[in-house]
Amino acid sequence: MRGAFVLAGGVVSLAMLSAAACAESTSDEALASDAGESDSALSVPEGDSAPPDAEAGIDAAVNPSRCSAAGWCETTLPDTDLVMRDLWPLQNRAFAIAESPTLGVKVLEWDDANETWEYIDDHTQNAPGMGAYAGKIWAPNDDEVYYGVAPGYIYHGTRPVPPAKAWSWTRQALPDNARPPTPSQPRNGYPPYEAMGINYPALGVWGTSRDDVYAWFTNTIFHWKSVDGAAPTWVAEYIIDDVSSTAERAFILGASGIGPDDIWFAGGRSRSTAPGCGIAVRKMSGVYRRVADAALPSNLCVAKEGHLLIEGGRQKAFLTDIQLVAPNEVVALKGARDIVKISVNGDSYSLATSNVPREVAATETFYSLWARDGSTWLSGPSRIVRGTDVWEDGGYQISTIWADGTPVNLPLYKVRGTSNENLWAIGVRYALHKTTP
User: Fold this and answer.
1) I need a surface site. Which of 77, 148, 274, 355 has the fewest CB within 10 A?
2) Does a structural domain hold residue 331?
3) CA gap 332, 317 in Å, rounded
């Protein structure tokens, strides 16, 4: 089912463990701490079976003991209690950020040549007062990486030059420009997101190149740049501070773009007693414009003149995992359930929604979205869903991740790739790599 609305002239690697190995290594209760998973989310229901695999048989060469029929293959992580939160893939490697009840926040690198994950952080991200949660991670190239970590720091790492062996790291603290925390939202940078059933970091980093890097924290977009000839620093370029009450909060949650002159940011606003409303901000040729937003005076989203309205019904409808897929087309995950597309036609913007059928989704929750070349990938509890040409009367299918047909009912927090033949899906004790079509 699709809906459309038009706005004109608005300004503004851990292996997939067996049950026995999991029991020996760590408890589900420990893994669930501060991650929002319930015991049931971390268990395999007795007698459960893998759902139908729409992609089964596409690659008979995959190893059935380590790969699913759809080509999702296990990789081995250095510790068994890692909750993989975010990942940035490159052509022959990947960088990831994870949380562990025993190690804290950790940063890892995958190398295709060695087929291994290794820690590359310097441990300072877990100093007293830090490391309560992991933010987003981004890498402009093979030799440097950025990531966010509580309570509002951005780290920048560069690969060692021999004879040095360890990565070099610097960090900067981002100011919190939001209102003081409330009992219902005790950490501004880590708001509860009922639609996903977890807290979602309003802290991350992304760039168009190594020389054009952005960060976000709570309600503010920062740009790494020099002002008046001074040394570069994180400069606040855009703040969402138009809230209706002291209980309302606005957040930036993701970014995407195809160059320095066209960048999109996703987010939302919410109150403890009201649904959430999606926010989309576009920076074009140096000018920020609020494309989608809503007022939240009581218990519903109210359209603002000159803005698209993105509302979530019963669930808070933050926009997350935004992605610019064409010069005039951006897609995002709305309310952890639906895919929205914002199309640009001159000064006009239109909004369309694509719903994943219940028989494919099985659950009404998805954690992430990634799209490329006509395919839209979604990750959620225990499954990956692939959409094909969903805006042109295409459909959705399950892409089975279970090796040997054995189901494992654990959350997959991120799906992302460089192409449909270089995809990653990561989550609780998972790092799965797909290199088949």
Assistant:
1) 355
2) yes
3) 11
